[in-house]
Automatic annotation (TrEMBL):
It comes from the Bacteria. InterPro entries: AAA+_ATPase, DNA_repair_RadA, P-loop_NTPase, RecA_ATP-bd, Ribosomal_Su5_D2-typ_SF, Ribsml_uS5_D2-typ_fold_subgr, Rubredoxin_2. The gene is radA. This is DNA repair protein RadA. The keyword Acyltransferase does not apply. The lineage of its organism: Bacteria, Bacillati, Actinomycetota, Actinomycetes, Micrococcales. It comes from Sinomonas terrae. ATP binds at G100, E101, P102, G103, V104, G105, K106, S107. Plays a role in repairing double-strand DNA breaks, probably involving stabilizing or processing branched DNA or blocked replication forks. DNA-dependent ATPase involved in processing of recombination intermediates, plays a role in repairing DNA breaks. Stimulates the branch migration of RecA-mediated strand transfer reactions, allowing the 3' invading strand to extend heteroduplex DNA faster. Binds ssDNA in the presence of ADP but not other nucleotides, has ATPase activity that is stimulated by ssDNA and various branched DNA structures, but inhibited by SSB. Does not have RecA's homology-searching function. A motif (RadA KNRFG motif) lies at residues 262-266.
Length: 467
């Protein structure tokens, strides 16, 4: 009995691990206790070291001073806003994951990038670019390429859903840029499961990344997103790739934004702006004009603010409309703004600034479909609502920004001087900003800045708050 007990205790204890996040448990459960994903907990044995040191090393380690950094120099894509987000362009051997909702323009953008990279090859450098599509036929991709002007002699198309065939195309063409649309449509015959499953996505990503690193080939992967907005497939996919970009945009708006969530070669606080039209997608180097209405005469209930998207200041307009309510509970409607934060600002205006709003239906929206989530837009929302209440328009060349607290105080926000400089560049002459210990910085000539510390002070500078 003693020998059986010792043998049983020496066996490696089996456990279970989540394929999404790596959470472990001693017994099987249907839902991961960490990431709350269903059906991702799989049985694994105890960790046993199986890999031993190689007898011969294929490539010995080198001193970091002896490594040639020019091999990883940035390659411009020809799309200025994408280069801005990536930190300068494409890095040879890098694997970039671009995720976004269906119809946002991922395939259109990457097809345009593929054509421009194929057309701008340096002398003596292979210009082959391979575009692997698993969702469309080659003829369908050709039609879209002709529509957006993305037909290039060095661009090759391959409609494949088999990973082995796609890797064979890479071996044959030896492209310097590979585009896979999308990673969830490829599958390997060596792995069980359907395309898009956890095991398949893991195998496809690992094989493509290995090929990219071995050939020093830049790879762009298109990724689907779930209804919650996260990238579909295992979280391991985001950890393996070098760059993760999110493509955002409203279906009924032409504006598209790209944000770098992860970037091993550049900043993660840059935002690229694009205009998606019938003839393709184009970079928008100065998007502030898209979010500001153009009216000859001042209109009550409007206020211009400056928000920071990454490190880029953008001008946006907030509009408010108040109407006497016929219901016991007035309506609070918002568009492009956080509804709970707008409701908080309405309460602050009534309790701290004397604006009687509990009998009015309130409608607050942004212009151009932009979404404003930064707290710095609070002061502009408050001024727009107060302007709508008194029906007195604010000056057309005035901007306002600052975070408003529940006590009515106006708190400092980052980048005050950067916002002022952007407003001055676009022709604005006055600004209401929060008072800060460091001050607003250098003020442009002819520009007037007024610092306020309370929302009532801001309203008193501009309009009467009676009513």
């Amino acid at each position: 009995m003693a020998s059986k007990t010792s043998t049983r205790s020496s066996r490696p204890a089996a456990g279970y691990r989540c394929a999404e996040c790596g959470w472990t448990t001693v017994k099987w459960v249907g839902r991961c206790g960490e990431c709350q994903s269903w059906g991702t907990v799989e049985e694994v044995g105890a960790a046993v070291a199986r890999t031993t040191a190689a007898v011969t090393v294929r490539e010995p380690a080198r001193l970091i001073a002896d490594v040639d950094a020019t091999e990883a120099a940035f390659l411009p894509t020809g799309v200025s806003e994408l280069d801005r987000v990536l930190g300068g362009g494409l890095v040879p051997g890098a694997v970039i994951l671009l995720a976004g909702e269906p119809g946002v323009g991922k395939s259109t953008l990457l097809l345009d990038v593929a054509a421009k990279v194929a057309a701008t090859a340096a002398p003596g450098v292979p210009s082959h670019v391979l575009y692997v599509t698993g969702e469309e036929s080659a003829a369908q991709v050709k039609l879209r390429a002709e529509r957006i002007g993305a037909v290039s002699p060095g661009l090759y198309l391959s409609a494949e859903t088999d990973l082995g065939q796609a890797l064979g195309q890479v071996e044959k063409l030896e492209p310097r840029l590979l585009v896979v649309d999308s990673v969830q449509t490829l599958s390997s015959a060596e792995v069980e499961g359907s395309a898009g499953g956890v095991s398949q996505v893991r195998e496809v990503a690992a094989s493509l990344i290995a090929a990219a690193k071995r050939r020093n080939m830049t790879t762009l992967l298109v990724g689907h997103v779930t209804k919650e907005g996260s990238i579909a497939g295992p979280r391991l996919l985001e950890h393996l790739v070098d760059v993760v970009c999110q493509f955002e945009g409203e279906r009924h708006s032409r504006l598209r934004l790209i944000r770098a969530v992860k970037n091993r070669y550049g900043p993660t606080d840059e935002v690229g702006c694009f205009d998606l039209g019938e003839d393709g997608i184009a970079s928008v180097t100065d998007p502030s004009g898209l979010f500001v209405s153009r009216t000859k005469e001042p209109v009550s209930g409007t206020c211009i603010t400056v928000t920071l998207e990454g490190r880029r200041p953008l001008l946006a307009e907030v509009q408010s409309l108040l109407a006497e309510s016929s219901n016991a509970q007035p309506r609070r409607a918002t568009s492009g703004l956080d509804s709970s934060r707008v409701a908080m600002l309405l309460a602050v205006l009534q309790q701290r600034a004397g604006c009687v709003l509990h009998k009015d239906d309130s409608y607050v929206a942004t212009v151009g479909g932009v979404k404003l989530s930064e707290p710095a837009t609070d002061l502009a929302v408050a001024l727009a609502v107060a302007s709508a209440k008194t029906r007195q328009a604010l000056p057309q060349r005035l901007i306002a920004f600052g975070e408003v607290g529940l006590a009515g105080e106006v708190r400092p926000v980052p980048g005050i001087n950067r916002r002022i400089q952007e407003a001055h560049r676009l022709g604005f002459t006055h600004a209401v900003v929060p008072a800060s210990p460091t001050g607003p910085g250098e003020i442009p000539a002819g520009f007037s800045v007024r610092e306020v510390s309370h929302v009532a002070e801001a309203l008193g500078l501009l309009i009467s708050t009676g009513g």
